[in-house]
Write a structure and sequence with these properties.
Layout lengths: L6 H10 L3 E5 L3 H14 L3 E5 L1 H7 L1 H15 L3 E8 L2 H9 L4 E4 L6 H17 L3 E6 L11 H7 L6 H8 L3 E4 L20 H10 L5 E3 L7 H9 L12 H9 L2 E6 L1 H17 L6 H24 L6
Helix pairs in contact: 2-4, 2-13, 3-4, 5-6, 10-12, 12-13
Bound molecules: glyceraldehyde-3-phosphate, 1,3-dihydroxyacetonephosphate and zinc ion (ZN).
Glyceraldehyde-3-phosphate (G3H) binds next to helix 3 and strand 3.
């Protein structure tokens, strides 16, 4: 099966009250761990590639590895550009075989975001590729951010209809309190997501797929393993899994996960090397890392996304 777009995945996810996992990939072990987990749970899959991943692993290598995952599992896989910064990187990924791209115009003004997003949509749709846009700014909750600054970062529901109509995007990433990385809330701060904003966006955009970035839960088990093996990740904190499950039952059809993969992989490598400090065969420490990725992704699919047995 060739790679698929997210159109059918999202229609089924919306109707079924679940979300599809969008996992960031950077190397073979990560791709294998994710693909094996999705194959065993019969889950649709989005593998997403950032500009940094393309720089690290190179476009051609990643495409061949993802092709191998597809051939090996027979899963419907969408290959997605994560955080496309401008038209040129989106075009390069569309020309290079991706089936979905994100144009992240959230750093621009509303009008400029519309302009660049519409330009990407025109090119993408002419090539059978779907587009994710973004409205609102994701960021960590900083000490010196006032309530009005914090509110300004959230997606403004009264902008979403105009944005979607004028750009023609196929899905929309919104900011409701998630953020990238492993330190999403201040120590002692109660994690919260703005479900009121999500519900208002859903009301204004019926049947339209919404995307959540920054959705790692920073699984304590992996943080503890890293810290017990020479790491220092005090105060790492993520989005509670029950909140993500709740969002998946609403309009959220795509949930982005990268930091949890990094933590699972790093925990595997650190634990193996601390246990056997003289080890220098990479297969010996990358195998447990790959196993951790697989376990993590299976648990996400079943307990958080709810997309098991959907193919
Ligand atoms: O949202 C960003 C992803 O975690 C990708 O991170 O740009 O370091 O590959 P990266
Ligand atoms: P996390 O850092 O929470 O995993 O978010 C990843 C992401 O949003 C990729 O686009
Ligand atoms: Zn992101």
């Amino acid at each position: 099966m060739p790679f698929v777009t997210t159109t059918e995945m999202f229609a089924k996810a919306y109707a079924g009250g679940y979300a599809v996992g969008a996992f960031n990939v950077n190397n073979m072990e990560i791709i294998q761990g994710i693909a094996d987990a999705a194959a065993e749970t019969r889950a649709p899959l989005i593998l997403q590639v950032s500009a940094g991943a393309r720089k690290y692993a190179r476009h051609g290598y990643l495409m061949k590895l993802i092709e191998a995952a597809e051939a090996d599992t027979g899963l419907p896989i969408a290959v997605h550009l994560d955080h496309g910064e401008d038209f040129d990187v989106c075009k390069s990924c569309i020309d290079g075989g991706f089936t979905s791209v994100m144009i992240d115009g959230s750093k621009h003004s509303f009008a400029e975001n519309i302009d660049v997003t519409r330009k990407v949509v025109e090119y993408a749709h002419a090539h059978g590729v779907v587009v994710e846009g973004e409205l609102g700014r994701l960021s960590g909750i900083e000490d010196d951010v006032s309530v009005s600054d914090e509110d300004a970062g959230y997606t403004q529901p009264d902008e979403v209809e105009e944005f979607v109509t004028k750009t023609g995007v196929d899905s929309l990433a919104i900011a409701i309190g998630t953020s990238h990385g492993a330190f999403k809330f201040k120590p002692g701060q109660k994690p919260r997501l703005r479900f009121d904003i999500l519900k208002e966006v859903e009301r204004r955009l019926p049947n339209f797929p919404i995307v959540l970035h920054g959705s790692s839960s920073v699984i304590p088990k992996y943080v503890e393993t890293i810290n017990a093996n020479g790491g220092n990740l005090a105060d790492a904190i993520g989005i509670p899994e029950d909140m993500l499950r709740e969002a998946a039952k609403l309009a959220v059809c795509k949930i982005n996960i990268d930091s949890d993969l990094r933590l699972a992989m790093t925990a595997g490598v650190r634990e193996a090397l601390v246990k056997a400090p003289a080890e220098f065969d990479p297969r010996k420490y990358l195998s447990p890392a790959r196993d951790n990725i697989k376990k993590l992704v299976k648990a996400k699919i079943i307990n958080v996304l709810g997309c098991d047995n959907k193919i």
